[in-house]
Amino acid sequence: MTDKIQLTISGTTLPVLIEDNVATRALVSALRESSITYTARDYGGFEKVGALGRSLPTSDTDITTQAGDVILYNGDNIVLFYGSNSWSYTRLGKIQYKSLDELKSFLKAGGGNISVTLSL
């Protein structure tokens, strides 16, 4: 299995170092067939969340997220964190970024809906 996927927003791509779990294996399998594009919206002032358009298997545990975390929520939503939250999630990976300002700019934090593309 690959250890990274690509996250593209507004023509800019950052790698995501992924976990090895049942959800990421299913996601990578889907991405081998084609990239996945979905719309994400700001929520709670600390994340972008959007419906993946398919369900992935979960292995939820209580997590306190950090900026850059990529999380599966309810099996069919991807959450991209630019802040922190505690909840029961399945961790997918971590966006590889240089600074919090770079991450917030990349995610258009607080800027409304964005189109997100996941690919290998």
Detailed description of the structure:
This protein is an alpha+beta fold and 120 residues long. 16% of the residues lie in helices and 47% in strands. The chain contains two helices and nine strands; from the N terminus they run ββαββββββαβ. The chain has helices at 22-33, 100-106, and strands spanning 4-9, 12-18, 36-43, 47-51, 61-64, 69-73, 77-81, 86-95, 114-119. The model has no long low-confidence stretch (mean pLDDT 97).
In short:
With 120 residues, this protein is α+β, with helices and mostly antiparallel strands. 16% of the residues lie in helices and 47% in strands.
Q: In terms of topology, how is this protein built?
A:
Layout: E1 4-9, E2 12-18, H1 22-33, E3 36-43, E4 47-51, E5 61-64, E6 69-73, E7 77-81, E8 86-95, H2 100-106, E9 114-119
Antiparallel strand pairs: 1-2, 1-9, 2-8, 3-4, 3-9, 4-7, 5-8, 6-7, 6-8
Helix/strand-derived class? alpha+beta
Q: How many strands, which pairing sense, and closed or not: the largest β-sheet?
A: 8 strands, antiparallel, barrel
State the assembly state of the protein chains. single chain
How many runs of DSSP E, i.e. beta strands?
Answer: 9
| Percent in helix | 10-25%
The ordered H/E elements are EEHEEEEEEHE
Uncertain regions spanning at least 5 consecutive residues? none
N-to-C CA distance: 11 Å
Shape: globular
Query: What is the strand content?
Result: over 45%
Provide the residue-averaged pLDDT. 97
Radius of gyration: 13 Å
Total helical segments: 2
The strand line-up of the biggest sheet is: 1-2-8-6-7-4-3-9
